[in-house]
What we know:
Belongs to the COX19 family. InterPro entries: CHCH (IPR010625), COX19 (IPR051383), Cys_alpha_HP_mot_SF (IPR009069). It is found in: Cytoplasm. Pfam families: CHCH. Residues 1-23 are annotated as: Disordered. The termini are far apart. Helix 2 packs antiparallel against helix 3 (52-64). The protein is mainly alpha-helical and 90 residues long. The radius of gyration is 20 Å and the shape is globular. The longest helix has 13 residues, at 31-43. The chain has helices at 2-5, 31-43, 52-64.
Amino acid sequence: MSTAMNFGSKSFQPRPPEKGSFPLDHFGECKSFKEKFMKCLRDNKFENALCRKESKAYLECRMERQLMAQEPLEKLGFGDLIGGKPEAKT
């Protein structure tokens, strides 16, 4: 029963995640963007690189409606899609 003696020795201090914590879209404000993105994923056998435009539009919707923190699109990996530039081929 050594666990009974260790209860007071350490206390767990929870901390929030650096990224990924954001409000749910309870009112469906970005549902159409999410559905387009999910359809694209299904149509392309879940190759997310083929659905970057849909992903960008969905994240922009969430940021505009304050459902996630504002981040520069370049920081989210969409620098090549800004300003109508063509996608970079990998």
